[in-house]
Design brief:
By secondary structure, this protein is of the alpha/beta class. The chain has ten helices and twelve strands. It has a seven-stranded mixed sheet with strand order 4-5-6-7-8-10-9, sandwiched between helices. Strands 3-2-1-11-12 form a five-stranded mixed sheet, with helices on one face. Helix 4 packs parallel to helix 5 and helix 7 runs parallel beside helix 8.
Length: 355
């Protein structure tokens, strides 16, 4: 596995002038694509304050950046917190104000599959909460989360999945929650109904991902965003089927499809997810050198949002990721035990610690 830290590649072009060198610089800057990523928070009152307008530090940093899109990876609350309508509405409001009309949200397990747990409030039927979540964030969407994202489309009959493009980068979101993609810990819903929903979600996600790559032939990169960490799983389990819907790897179908499509695409592909604490940017498969993975910050461990930059001229490290608050590059080692160290210790020292 290739291990390296990545420096920020922000290029700001001066106003166009007659000078050819200025024209060249502007052309180079125009090819870069910047966007922001956030997920797995707020889990505490302090994190809630960081995201709240007008004085929250992360909220102010996102406003100052004014990215063409903010991707919210879901889990807008901790899993055992109440799933009441009031709490959902408040977090929808907060998300909508972070980057008004330019925010794409994809659901996480804390936002619906975990709502049947014992919590600081009533336990809910997870499928009922999924229906309410879809109404609030997508069907009604009174705050118009994505109004100013040109060309954004949503999947027919699966409204939470979106596709759009920024310059040469083709984006897609997939609804992939934790709890084994919604196949585990079904505590209040009818189990068959919940597993049927998981099957339907797999089918929708598969079709949506295939469509994104089919329409991205002229793109220079593809970005795929979802909530669950499909890498943090028992990879010995078989793919889920109609005859085995629970004792299986609920992520394997999509993980294998992403690998296949990335190999065929040959150009840079970035997976972005949340769900676990090991904040990092790396290449997960040595045999697929054009595939990158960002495990975004959040989940109690590393509280920040990320600036992601795609630079098509940088063949070795086309994607760079830095924190909005600390300005530091994402660690290249996916080990949350080293996360606090990675803010201060150079890469060569970290390599020595792991050898």
């Amino acid at each position: 596995m290739k291990v390296c830290f990545f420096l920020s590649m922000l290029i700001f072009a001066a106003p166009a002038a007659a000078n050819p060198s200025n024209d060249a610089a502007s052309s180079g800057a125009a090819k870069t694509v910047r966007f922001a990523v956030l997920g797995d928070m707020p889990y505490t009152d302090a994190e809630y304050a960081l995201l709240e307008q007008p004085n929250g530090a992360i909220a102010k940093a996102i406003r100052a950046l004014n990215p063409p899109v903010l991707i919210h990876l879901g889990d807008f609350k901790r899993g055992r917190l109440s799933c009441s309508d009031d709490l959902f509405q408040d977090h929808y409001r907060q998300i909508a104000q972070l980057n008004p009309h330019k925010t794409v949200y994809t659901p996480g397990d804390n936002d619906w599959t975990d709502c049947d747990r014992f919590s600081t409030g009533m336990r809910h039927d997870e499928l009922e909460r999924l229906g309410y979540l879809r109404q609030l964030f997508f069907h009604q969407d009174r705050q118009h989360l994505t109004k100013n994202i040109p060309g954004l489309i949503r999947q027919r009959d699966f409204i939470e999945n979106a596709q759009w493009s920024i310059g040469p980068v083709a984006f897609t979101t997939l609804h992939i929650p934790g709890t084994n993609n919604g196949r585990r810990e079904i505590l209040r819903s009818n189990i068959d109904d919940a597993l049927n929903e998981a099957d339907r979600r797999d089918q929708a996600n598969t079709g949506w991902l295939q469509q994104r790559f089919a329409t991205a032939e002229s793109a220079q990169a593809v970005v795929i965003a979802f909530q669950a960490d499909m890498f943090d799983f028992d990879h010995e389990k078989p793919v889920c089927t109609t005859s085995n819907r629970t004792d299986c790897d609920g992520f394997r179908l999509l993980r294998d499809l992403i690998k296949q499509k990335a190999e065929q695409f040959k150009k840079p592909v970035l997976i972005i997810h949340g769900d676990t604490a090991a904040y990092c940017l790396h290449q997960p498969y040595p045999g697929i050198p054009n595939l990158w993975r960002l495990n975004a910050p959040g989940d109690y461990k590393y509280i920040d949002a990320s600036l992601v930059v795609f630079d098509p001229e940088n063949k070795d490290t086309p994607f760079t990721v830095t924190g909005l608050l600390d300005g530091k590059p994402a660690p290249a080692i996916c080990d949350d035990n080293l996360l606090s160290l990675s803010r201060y210790i150079p890469l060569q020292t970290l390599k020595t610690l792991l050898s």
